[in-house]
TrEMBL record:
Classification via Pfam families: Abhydrolase_4 (PF08386)
Name assigned to this protein: Peptidase S33 tripeptidyl aminopeptidase-like C-terminal domain-containing protein
Gene3D superfamilies: alpha/beta hydrolase
InterPro entries, A to Z: AB_hydrolase_fold (IPR029058), Pept_S33_TAP-like_C (IPR013595), Serine_prot/Carboxylest_S33 (IPR051601)
Database matches in SUPFAM superfamilies: alpha/beta-Hydrolases (SSF53474)
Family membership noted in the UniProt record: Belongs to the peptidase S33 family.
Signal peptide: 1-29
Keyword Signal among UniProt keywords: yes
Any GO molecular function: hydrolase activity
Span of domain Peptidase S33 tripeptidyl aminopeptidase-like C-terminal: 443-542
Coiled-coil stretches noted in the UniProt entry, renumbered to this chain: none
C-alpha cells in the first residue's frame, strides 16, 4: 500500500544509477530476443482511447501507443538503454476471445541473453499503491535494482491493468483539468475533517466512475493483475514468477501466491499489508506502528543534538511537547504563507499533520528537513514546510493528451474499491468507522478517507476473497520494518504464517519498506534469495548502516570517499552500497502521498 494510503501511489522522481553494465544499441542488437526499433518521435502519431490522434513531440513521453500489443513480447528500444513492450491480455479472463487489454512493460535487460546458461529470467517489480507505475520505478531505479539482484536478471516493471500506460486506463473524468478541479474541491485545507462532505463526495465520485465506464471498470482488480503477471512470465517462456513487491505490492504478491502457489520461483514482499484487512476494505491494521515511527523522530532528534536536528530539545518528551504547542497554535490561527520564490498556501493543523505523516515514510530523507520546517514554523515562517511538501501547482498544457498515460488517482480508487468489500452508504456508519479507526491510532485523520472513498462505488462482482494460504513451490521471503508507519511488522508476520516455509526478515528501522533505510544486510539477503533461493534464518534482524536518520548517511563509495568503510561497508560491497543508497534516495511520496495532500 504504498501508503496507499495512498499514495496512492507511488510515483516519484529519482536519478538513475550506473550499473553492472552499460547497455547501448550495439549490445542490445546482439541479443537473440526480439528487439524492434520505432520511428523517430517526431514521426509518431498515437491514438488515444477515443480514437483521436496525438502528436507526440520529442520532449514528451516515449510513444507507447505506437507499439502494437501482442501476445508474444516484442521489445522496442526506449529511453536510451531500456526496452519497452505491450502485452495483449484478455480484459475479462472469463471471455479470453473478447475485448483485450494491453499491459505496458519496461525492462532493464540482463547482461546475458535468454539462451545463456547464466540468464536467470525476469524479476517483476511492483512499487505499491494500489495504482503505482512499475514502468516509472524501473525507468528511474532499474539500474539500482539490477545491481542489487545481479546482472543475470531482467528487471521488469509493468503498469497494472487500468493504470498509467496500460490500456484501457481507469478514468472518471472527461479531461485532466476536470480531474484536478474535482480533487481540489475540499472544504478548507486538505486536512480539514468534514465527514459529511467526504461521504457526499465519495458518492459523487462513484457516480462519475459509473458514468465513464464502458464495461472496463469491473475488470481492474488485483486478482486479474495477478493473472497478468503469470501471463508476463509465460510470455518470457517461464512457468514460474520471480517478483519483488512493495507495500500494496505485497497484497498483489500474496494474491498471486494464493491463486498460483505452484508458479512461484522467487517472491519477496516488502512492507507488508494485512491482505485480509485490505480485501475487507477495513484499512484498520495499517496504523499500528505509526506512533512508534513518530517516536523515532523525537528520540533521534534528541540524540542528534541541535547541530543536526533544528527542532532539538534535550529530551524526546520536550520535542513532543513543542510539536503539540505548534498543533494548538495552528488550530487557533492558521498561518498564511507567501514566499519570495512564489510558494504560497495556508499551513493549518490539518496540513501540518499531513506533512508529518508523509515524512514518516522516508525518515532518512525527510526528518532533517521536517525538523528545520518545524523550527521555522515555530518562528512564524511556514515557507520551508510548504516548499518541501507541497506539490507544484497544476499547469494546463496546450496538448490535451499530454497526461493521458500518467498514473492518476482514479486508478487507486478503482483497485481498492473493486477489490474490497462493499462499504455501507450510511453516514452514521462512516462516523462509527472514523471513531473505530481513531481507537486504533491517533493518525486516523490521515487515513480514514481511503475506506470512505468506496462509498457509492458501482457494484462489481467480487471474485477473489482469499484465503491467503498455500504451499508455494518456493518459500516466500517477507520483509518488514520494526517501525513502518503504514505496514506494521505484525502484518508481515501474519501473512507469512499462511504460506508454508515463508520467512520474515526484520529490519530494525523506521520508514516504509526496507529501502527507505539503507541497509547492506537486508539487501544482501534479498540478493542471495533471488540468486540461489536461500532464505535467512528465521528471526534474523538487520540494521541500517546508520541508525539515526539525523546522522549523515555516507555517500557513494568511490576512490575519493572512503566514509562507508568507517561504518562497516566492506569494499566488496561498494557497488551494492551505491545501489542501496540510490534506492533510498530515490523514494519520494507517491500517488498515495499525493492523494493525502489533495484530500481523498
Amino acid at each position: 500500500m504504498s501508503a496507499l494510503a495512498f499514495k496512492l501511489l507511488l510515483i516519484t522522481t529519482f536519478p538513475a544509477a550506473f550499473l553492472w553494465v552499460s547497455w547501448n544499441t550495439g549490445v542490445a542488437s546482439q541479443d537473440k530476443r526480439r528487439i524492434n526499433g520505432l520511428p523517430k518521435y517526431s514521426e509518431q502519431v498515437q491514438k488515444s482511447d477515443n480514437g483521436s490522434s496525438i502528436d507526440t513531440a520529442p520532449d514528451l513521453d516515449f510513444p507507447w501507443l505506437s507499439i502494437p500489443p501482442s501476445v508474444n513480447l516484442v521489445w522496442h528500444l526506449c529511453y536510451g538503454a531500456f526496452q519497452c513492450a505491450r502485452l495483449e491480455v484478455p480484459l475479462n479472463y472469463s471471455e479470453p476471445r473478447g475485448r483485450q487489454a494491453a499491459i505496458a512493460l519496461i525492462r532493464k535487460p540482463a547482461l546475458f541473453s535468454e539462451g545463456s546458461r547464466f540468464y536467470k529470467g525476469p524479476v517483476l517489480i511492483n512499487p505499491g499503491g494500489p495504482g503505482g507505475s512499475g514502468v516509472d520505478v524501473v525507468l528511474r531505479l532499474g539500474n539500482a535494482i539490477s545491481t542489487i539482484l545481479g546482472p543475470r536478471f531482467d528487471i521488469v516493471g509493468f503498469d497494472p491493468r487500468g493504470i498509467s500506460r496500460s490500456t484501457p486506463r481507469s478514468n472518471f473524468f472527461s479531461s485532466d483539468l476536470e480531474r484536478e478541479l474535482f480533487y481540489t474541491q475540499t472544504p478548507g485545507s486538505p486536512g480539514h475533517e468534514n465527514v459529511a462532505y467526504t461521504w457526499a463526495r465519495a458518492q459523487l465520485l462513484g457516480g462519475l466512475a459509473a458514468r465513464h465506464d464502458d464495461g472496463r471498470l469491473a475488470h481492474f482488480n488485483t486478482a486479474n493483475t495477478a493473472t497478468d503477471m503469470l501471463m508476463i512470465a509465460n510470455a518470457h517462456g517461464r512457468k514460474k514468477l520471480q517478483y519483488w513487491g512493495f507495500s500494496y505490492g505485497s497484497v498483489l504478491g500474496a494474491t498471486f501466491a494464493a491463486m498460483y502457489p505452484d508458479n512461484i520461483e522467487r517472491m519477496v514482499i516488502d512492507g507488508v499489508m494485512d491482505s485480509e484487512d485490505y480485501y475487507a476494505t477495513g484499512w484498520l491494521t495499517n496504523l499500528v506502528d505509526t506512533e512508534k515511527s513518530l517516536d523515532h523522530f523525537f528520540e533521534s532528534c534528541a540524540e542528534a543534538g541541535p547541530s543536526r536536528c533544528a527542532f532539538h530539545a534535550p529530551e524526546p518528551s520536550d520535542i513532543k511537547k513543542n510539536l503539540t504547542s505548534l498543533y494548538d497554535r495552528l488550530r487557533k490561527e492558521p498561518l498564511p504563507v507567501l514566499t519570495r520564490s512564489g510558494t504560497y498556501g495556508i499551513v493549518d493543523y490539518g496540513v501540518l499533520r499531513k506533512y508529518i505523516f508523509l515524512s514518516l515514510y522516508s525518515p532518512y530523507n525527510s526528518f532533517p528537513f521536517l525538523a528545520q520546517g518545524l523550527k521555522d514554523l515555530a518562528a512564524g515562517d511556514g515557507g520551508s514546510l510548504l516548499s518541501i511538501f507541497q506539490p507544484p501547482p497544476y499547469k494546463c498544457s496546450c496538448n490535451p493528451h499530454e497526461r493521458d498515460l500518467i498514473a492518476v488517482l482514479d486508478g487507486q480508487t478503482t483497485l481498492a474499491c473493486n477489490d474490497g468489500d462493499e462499504v455501507s452508504s450510511s453516514l452514521d456508519d462512516l462516523k462509527d468507522y472514523r471513531q473505530k479507526l481513531s481507537n486504533v491510532s491517533d493518525w486516523a485523520d490521515a487515513w480514514w478517507q481511503i475506506h470512505a472513498s468506496c462509498i457509492g462505488w458501482p457494484k462489481v462482482e467480487k471474485r477473489f476473497r482469499g484465503p491467503f494460504v498455500g504451499n508455494t513451490s518456493h518459500p516466500i521471503l517477507v520483509v518488514g520494518n520494526t517501525a513502518d508507519p503504514v505496514t506494521p511488522l505484525q502484518s508481515a508476520k501474519k501473512m507469512a504464517e499462511g504460506f508454508r516455509g515463508a520467512v520474515v526478515l526484520t529490519q530494525d528501522s523506521p520508514g516504509h519498506c526496507s529501502i527507505n533505510a539503507p541497509s547492506i544486510c537486508t539487501q544482501r539477503y534479498i540478493r542471495q534469495y533471488f540468486q540461489d533461493g536461500t532464505l535467512p534464518t528465521p528471526g534474523t534482524v538487520c540494521e541500517p548502516v546508520v541508525k539515526n536518520p539525523f546522522y549523515k548517511v555516507p555517500g557513494r563509495f568511490d576512490a575519493e570517499d572512503q566514509t562507508p568503510l568507517q561504518l562497516g561497508v566492506e569494499p566488496q560491497d561498494a557497488e551494492l552500497w551505491n545501489a542501496v543508497l540510490e534506492m533510498s534516495e530515490g523514494l519520494r511520496p507517491s500517488l498515495s502521498e499525493f492523494h493525502l495532500l489533495r484530500g481523498v
